[in-house]
């Protein structure tokens, strides 16, 4: 096919050096310096004219190295981050629903929010425990790698980890909607639908932004940026 | 795989949209100018056929609608020397729409209800023209044509004010206008092209032109401002993080767009600042968008009365389709990958989905068929883009597969519509209506020039209508008689119309050519809450009342009437009658 559509439309990851399974097997590769970058992601090269910045020292360097190793571990840490994010979001959602309510009553909406948050917490606990229990016992699932490459899964989990806490905005507005407005509206009834628009935007637009951003963040990280600043500036291709 | 040249973003690989030609260098541009010119001519031709003149509005007799009445007070206030858009001239809609309508009524049409309708028809025509031009520029000739024809014939957004089958050019004058949304649509759809070429001066000029259009339409209607800003940021962010456009290109395009935007807005803001009304202007501009976003005027689908709608299915299904489509746009299947370094087509599909999604957000607040208008302006384009691009983007390679999948997607999209919308008879009647209506109306006898001032305010042709107004059973001649009487009684006095039987006060101000009292805002247009109403009345009592020489009301117990009678106990009270009920004129 001639190169008209999507000539370079996807990351060509080639042979991934990463562990294929999400949280169900251990990664042997802890040496970020030896990671192979066989696809579009090349080892970090400072942009022409871009200030490379002084190499980080001390704590910053240790944290950067740790983060880059995490990225190099594949989807497992991000899967766990998403599970933790879901759990924390669920706990916070219960708190928000319990505290933001009309005085002396707990409306049905709050009950629904708490029930949903409990379900989320239960799910995160199950997934987290399963991940810990299964660590190192399963071989890599090749079929999963064929379907969704480890790098894509890492990006998806990272995007989800960032997405779950945003749901607190919906929870907050849903809870707020049960509190009568402080003023009386003259011509029209008041119907607080901010939770609907928040849920809608989080459901339709946010995933696209988070997914592409997560993929970019990880892609730059795989290039082993020497500094935090280089990692950040690498997000903005020149 | 194409080797990427450094600094050559993937979006620059190929450009089929006509806007590319406008932004290209002279040689490339000249080669592509022919299809661009053909696209522009077709877009403008279609817009003229479906929404352009002659409308023969002086040969129609639709009652004056409440949406028109809300707008008339501002126009009358401006005519009497008040600053547009603030104080008594305040309206909840965009400032530019008021100013443009006023200017058109003064210089192009006539200062009457019919003249207002003609001015509004001109705005609608302009909106449809911009919409179709954007479709052709963004999507290319064939897809632009398909999206425009679908918009005009199948989807109802443009039917809300159009040549009606077997009728005339009619609909929601004073409310429905594609200009309320085309700024957002133009900015989001054309942004990838602006980004792609932003590093050349022509590209920067294209960005500035898009920004100027966005600025102008934001001045005309607030919907364009917030939606356009969010859409541009989201589109720019996604293009950037997907590695589809370099940071410099995105930044330059944004700067160009912002520059164009400021070219429009700077004089407006300076004008109000010079008059000491900048804060009031901005307060009025953001008043309704903020209030509606936080719950004022919001309704469940179909309103609080749950009026049935043939578009209920569309309302409930569309957000899920948009979510799915948005995700499908950023991935590639077999194997599943997050797409990076997007092709132009992928970027175009994403911004199409993004624009539709942002327009849909509005209908989540005030949820009814009318407010679905903005979304439905974009849905036809989304259907066409999805059908022509999605199959390929998610992995279909064979032409037959792509064609079959595209056709299936178009057919599937019709399931969101009521059957009548795409029935053959319906398509034919909407296609023929502009021609047949014009033919029929052209043959109808022209009406003479109205004799009295009030009749002139209503306008030639409409002054003999059997029904005056949307909320009143009276005939137009009876209404005109009352307005003439009121004008004779009040003359040039500064007057405050507290209310009118079944209608908004704007109708009386305009119909009787009154000099409106300098109230802080139009209470029916700019006041939402009880505290705001109390503040309005307090201001009315202390500041406005000393300047007010007449109050008109159907009840002397109205707060403003009571305040007037308290302050001026010896005020003359003249009782007129309308619709079998008293209507009082209180004079100092």
Molecular structure report:
The complex is a heterodimer of chains A (238) and B (588). Chain A is 57% helix and 0% strand. With 238 residues, chain A is mostly helical. In chain A, α2 packs antiparallel against α3, α2 runs parallel beside α5 and α5 runs antiparallel to α6. With 588 residues, chain B is mainly alpha-helical. Chain B has 2 domains: 385 residues, no CATH class; 136 residues, no CATH class. Chain B contains 22 helices and 9 strands. The longest helix of chain B is centred in the middle third of the chain and has 28 residues. The N terminus of chain B is likely disordered. Classes of the chains: A mainly alpha (238), B mainly alpha (588). The interface between A and B is large, with 54 and 67 residues.
What's the Cα radius of gyration of chain A?
22 Å
Shape estimate of chain B: globular
Summing up helix and strand content along with how strands pair, one would put the structural category of chain A as mainly alpha
Strand order of the largest sheet of chain B: 6-5-7-9-8
The Rg value of chain B, from CA coordinates, equals 26 Å
Strand content of chain B: 5-15%
Overall average pLDDT of chain B? 92
Helix content of chain A: 55-70%
Keywords summarizing the entry:
heterodimer; A: 238 residues; mainly alpha; 8 helices; globular; disordered N terminus; B: 588 residues; two-stranded antiparallel sheet
């Amino acid at each position: 096919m001639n190169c008209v559509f999507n000539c370079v439309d996807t990351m060509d990851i080639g042979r991934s050096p990463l562990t294929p399974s999400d949280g169900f097997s251990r990664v042997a590769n802890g040496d970020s310096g030896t990671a192979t970058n066989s696809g579009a992601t090349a080892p970090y090269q400072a942009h022409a004219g871009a200030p490379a910045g002084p190499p980080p020292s001390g704590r910053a360097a240790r944290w950067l190295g740790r983060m880059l190793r995490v990225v190099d571990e594949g989807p497992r840490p991000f899967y766990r981050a998403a599970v933790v994010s879901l759990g924390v979001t669920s706990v916070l959602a219960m708190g928000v629903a319990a505290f933001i309510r009309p005085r002396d009553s707990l409306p049905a909406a709050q009950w629904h929010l708490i029930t949903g948050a409990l379900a989320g917490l239960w799910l995160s606990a199950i997934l987290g425990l399963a991940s810990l229990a299964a660590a190192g016992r399963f071989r890599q699932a090749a079929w999963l790698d064929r379907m969704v490459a480890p790098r894509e899964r890492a990006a998806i989990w990272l995007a989800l980890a960032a997405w779950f806490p945003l749901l607190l905005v919906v929870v907050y507005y849903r809870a707020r909607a049960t509190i009568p407005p402080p003023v009386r509206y003259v011509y029209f009834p008041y119907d607080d639908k901010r939770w609907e628009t928040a849920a809608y935007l989080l459901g339709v637009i946010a995933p696209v932004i988070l997914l592409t951003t997560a993929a970019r963040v990880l892609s730059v990280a795989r290039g082993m940026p020497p500094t935090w600043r280089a990692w950040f500036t690498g997000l903005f291709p020149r | 795989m194409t080797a990427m040249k450094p600094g050559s973003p993937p979006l620059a690989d190929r450009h089929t949209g006509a806007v590319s030609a406008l932004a290209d260098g002279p040689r490339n541009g000249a080669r592509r100018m022919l299809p661009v010119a053909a696209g522009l001519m077709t877009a403008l031709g279609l817009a003229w056929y479906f929404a352009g003149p002659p409308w023969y509005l002086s040969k129609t007799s639709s009652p004056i609608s409440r949406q028109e009445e809300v707008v008339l007070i501002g126009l009358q206030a401006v005519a009497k020397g008040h600053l547009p858009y603030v104080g008594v001239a305040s309206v909840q809609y965009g400032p530019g729409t008021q100013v443009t309508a006023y200017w058109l009524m003064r210089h192009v049409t006539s200062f009457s209800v019919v003249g207002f309708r003609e001015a509004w028809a001109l705005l609608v025509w302009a909106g449809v023209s911009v919409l179709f031009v954007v479709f052709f520029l963004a999507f290319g000739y064939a897809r632009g044509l398909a999206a425009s024809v679908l918009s005009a014939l199948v989807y109802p957004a443009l039917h809300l004010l159009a040549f009606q089958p077997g009728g005339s050019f009619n609909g929601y004058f004073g409310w429905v206008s594609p200009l309320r949304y085309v700024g957002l649509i133009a900015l989001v759809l054309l942004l990838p092209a602006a980004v792609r070429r932003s590093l050349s001066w022509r590209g920067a000029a294209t960005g500035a032109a898009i920004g100027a259009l966005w600025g102008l339409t934001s001045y005309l209607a607030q919907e364009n401002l917030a939606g356009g800003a969010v859409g541009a940021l989201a589109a720019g962010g996604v293009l950037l993080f997907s590695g589809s456009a370099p940071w410099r290109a995105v930044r330059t395009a944004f700067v160009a767009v912002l520059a164009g935007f400021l070219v429009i807005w700077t004089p407006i803001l300076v004008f109000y600042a010079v008059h000491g009304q900048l804060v009031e202007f901005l307060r009025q501009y953001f008043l309704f968008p903020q209030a509606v976003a936080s719950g004022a005027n919001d309704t469940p689908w179909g309103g609080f009365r749950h009026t049935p709608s043939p578009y209920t299915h569309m309302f409930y299904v569309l957000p899920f389709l948009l979510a799915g489509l948005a995700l499908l746009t950023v991935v590639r299947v077999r194997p599943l990958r997050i797409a990076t370094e997007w092709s132009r087509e992928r970027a175009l599909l994403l911004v199409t989905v993004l624009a539709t999604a942002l327009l849909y957000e509005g209908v989540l607040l005030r949820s009814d068929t009318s407010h679905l208008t903005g979304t439905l302006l974009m849905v036809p384009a989304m259907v066409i883009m999805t059908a022509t691009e999605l199959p390929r983007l998610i992995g279909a390679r064979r032409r037959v597969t792509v064609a079959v999948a595209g056709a299936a997607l178009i057919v599937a999209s019709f399931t969101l519509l009521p059957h009548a919308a795409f029935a053959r008879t319906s398509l034919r009647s909407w296609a023929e209506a502009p021609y047949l209506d014009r033919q029929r109306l052209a043959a109808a006898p022209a009406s003479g020039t109205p004799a009295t001032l009030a009749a002139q305010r209503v306008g030639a042709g409409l002054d003999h209508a059997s029904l005056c107004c949307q909320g009143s059973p009276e005939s137009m001649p009876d209404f005109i008689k009352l307005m003439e009487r009121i004008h004779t009684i009040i003359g040039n006095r500064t007057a405050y119309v507290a209310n009118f039987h079944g209608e908004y006060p704007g109708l009386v101000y305009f119909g009787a050519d009154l000099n409106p009292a300098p109230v802080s805002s139009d209470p029916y247009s700019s006041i939402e809450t009880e505290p705001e109403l109390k503040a309005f009345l307090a201001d009315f009592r202390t500041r406005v009342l000393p300047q007010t020489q007449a109050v008109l009301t159907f009840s002397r117990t109205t707060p403003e009437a009571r305040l007037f009678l308290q302050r001026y106990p010896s005020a003359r009270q003249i009782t007129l009658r309308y619709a079998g009920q008293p209507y009082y004129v209180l004079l100092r």
